[in-house]
Amino acid sequence: MQPKREGSALMTVVSVNRGSATSIAHGGREFRTGIDKRPCTLRVTVSPAGIEGDTICDLEHHGGADQAIYAYGADHYAWWANELGRDIAPGTFGDNLTVANLPDDLFAGDRLLVGEVELEATGPRIPCSTLAAKMQDSNFGLTFRRAEKPGFYFRVKRGGDIGCGDAVELRQSDSESNVSMLELYRLYYDLSPDPEMLRRAVESPIAERLRKRFGQKLEASSG
């Protein structure tokens, strides 16, 4: 079983964000995407499908029950603002929840409780070309990857209403086969992954997209 971690500072929801389908032009391509999330002024409903009224265009790589909610740390947005020399508004990276004092890392299966809403961590966000287009920087995917501040995907274990200012409580996973979000993030890019780490990942309560990828890597390593 994973060691217990020290409690973090009080977490709160800084912003709840959702978006509609828009087109972004970059590098000679046009991206139809829902990445452009904007803060909601009223409380919204969270269900196993995600934030009510939110739009996801690329269903192959985003959304679904295991990636219903994407959360990003407000502290990491502050880091990016300093790094890029400009303000970065909540929702810029496509996050549904911007959370103050969100831990730098979580374990798969860790839960966030926001009032009656219960979210379970399933994996890190993997940067894509759409994020680079949103930032109007073809190299931003690599920059984002190297920063190792990916934010986390969650499945919705229990739905309900959520809004700005809500307190967030961390409940640690008791799974014995767990790996952390940053371990999964590094494993995703590892060209010579450790089979034991792959096995631990596959046995953890991660998103099915990741489980499939790591399962294929594990099969290749044992073949």
How does the SSE layout of this entry go?
Layout: E1 11-18, E2 22-26, E3 29-33, E4 38-39, E5 44-47, E6 50-51, E7 69-73, H1 74-84, E8 97-100, E9 111-114, E10 117-124, H2 129-135, H3 140-147, E11 152-158, E12 160-162, E13 167-171, H4 181-189, H5 195-202, H6 208-222
Parallel strand pairs: 7-8
Antiparallel strand pairs: 1-4, 1-8, 1-13, 2-3, 5-6, 5-12, 7-11, 9-10, 9-13, 10-11
Helix pairs in contact: 5-6
Report on the structure:
The protein has 223 residues and is α+β, with helices and mostly antiparallel strands. It folds into 2 domains: 11-171, PK beta-barrel domain-like (M1 Pyruvate Kinase, Domain 3, Beta Barrel); 181-222, no CATH class. The chain contains 6 helices and 13 strands. The protein has helices spanning 74-84, 129-135, 140-147, 181-189, 195-202, 208-222; strands spanning 11-18, 22-26, 29-33, 38-39, 44-47, 50-51, 69-73, 97-100, 111-114, 117-124, 152-158, 160-162, 167-171.
